[in-house]
From TrEMBL:
Residues 4-90 form the Zinc-ribbon domain. This is Zinc-ribbon domain-containing protein. InterPro entries: UCP012641 (IPR031321), Zinc-ribbon_6_bact (IPR011201).
Length: 352
């Protein structure tokens, strides 16, 4: 994630901000330009001189700060319009959970835009577009709980809104031994399945994929049952980014895909704050030194990303320990994992 400044007063603002705390300008983000726009009053328009923009319809609902060109017929921003189902807002906490989910999803769409990955056409080919449903567990007439399972099926990603509740997610994180169980992690993992269908299945890369991640034709249901019954094999961390990645080839790909997104977005953030080993720059709207104009998202070669990432995580782990916290980055990346990450990198950058 890059750094942003208020276009009116140059005060630093953040990706989620709807208002500048210094000059109180109304802020809006335009993903096509990766820029913050400002308006001085509630009835003023956001514009860049030639083009006027309007707020996403979800701005008053959940503080979505993304903008749309005023001439568009769409009422929702690029990210929000891909959500087909939201939770029952009359239930306590669900509005906050929905807001948290959409905020994480906007960060996902930020990366999708930076990588120039497609999300499909919701109007003309909705069955192949990237879609989201946010649902909650419900009680049946006999008093039993009908669980909503987080997962992906043919472009439709379902997420249980309980994942947006911090205590609930922490309980699951500890129970399942997942050091990085986060909302953004869920989104990045699930879209990995979507892009496997789009970029790997029935493509010239399928055999190379099988050589690195394993054969996806293995029975998925049986593989998951075995994983939950027996757990990951000893020494799994030498070959996989998580224990869950051991369950099946598809899960290995999705976990590695999510991890690659973590790395690239983390490096972009580090670059904008001068923490990536390059010369810091006090300007808030700069290009990080040492990368292309597109930053780490535009890096054509994989190894320089790792050369920057590994020492950064060592330093961040040391920083966390110095203030009494657990490791910021509790992973060790082996050559096998590097090869998997490099496959993801090449898949994203060479898909043309």
């Amino acid at each position: 994630m890059r750094r942003y400044a208020c276009p009116n007063c140059s005060n630093e603002v953040h990706f989620r901000n709807t208002e500048c705390v210094n000059c109180h300008s109304r802020l809006g983000y335009v993903p096509e330009w990766d820029r913050m726009f400002y308006a001085m009053s509630d009835d003023a328009r956001w514009h860049d001189g030639a083009t006027a923009y309007k707020a996403c319809a979800n701005r008053p609902e959940i503080a979505c700060n993304w903008l749309i060109e005023e001439t568009q017929t769409e009422d929702h921003c690029l990210s929000c319009r891909h959500t087909l189902v939201i939770p029952d807002l009359s239930a306590p906490g669900n509005r906050d959970h929905w807001a948290a989910l959409e905020e994480a999803k906007r960060r996902l769409f930020y990366s999708i835009e930076k990588f120039q990955l497609g999300v499909g056409n919701l109007v003309n080919q909705p069955e192949t577009a990237l879609r989201f449903e946010f649902k909650a567990d419900t009680l049946t007439a006999d008093g039993k709980t009908r669980r909503v399972l987080t997962g992906h099926e043919h472009g439709l990603i379902t997420i249980n809104v309980a994942e947006a509740d911090d205590p609930t997610r922490e309980k699951y994180r500890k129970a399942m031994g997942e050091p990085y169980r986060t909302l953004i992690g869920h989104f990045r993992h699930e879209v990995g399945h979507y892009y496997w269908d789009d970029l790997v299945f029935n493509s010239p890369r399928l055999e190379a994929y099988r050589a690195i991640f394993g054969d996806e034709r293995q029975d998925y249901g049986e593989a998951l049952k075995r994983h939950y019954d027996q757990g990951a094999p000893a020494g799994w961390d030498a070959t996989h980014v998580s224990s869950y990645a051991c369950a099946h080839s598809w899960e290995d790909f999705a976990e590695t895909w999510a991890h690659y997104f973590h790395i690239v977005d983390g490096l972009e953030t580090a670059g904008w704050y001068g923490l990536d080993g390059h010369t810091p720059d006090a300007g808030l709207n700069r290009t990080p030194g040492g990368w292309s104009d597109a930053g780490p998202y535009g890096a054509q070669e994989f190894r320089p990303l790792m050369d920057a990432w590994v020492p950064l995580t060592v330093a961040m782990n040391a920083m966390n320990r110095s203030i009494g916290l657990g490791d910021f980055y509790p992973f060790v990346l082996s050559d096998t994992i590097f090869a998997k990450l490099e496959f993801i990198h090449d898949l994203i950058h060479d898909r043309g």
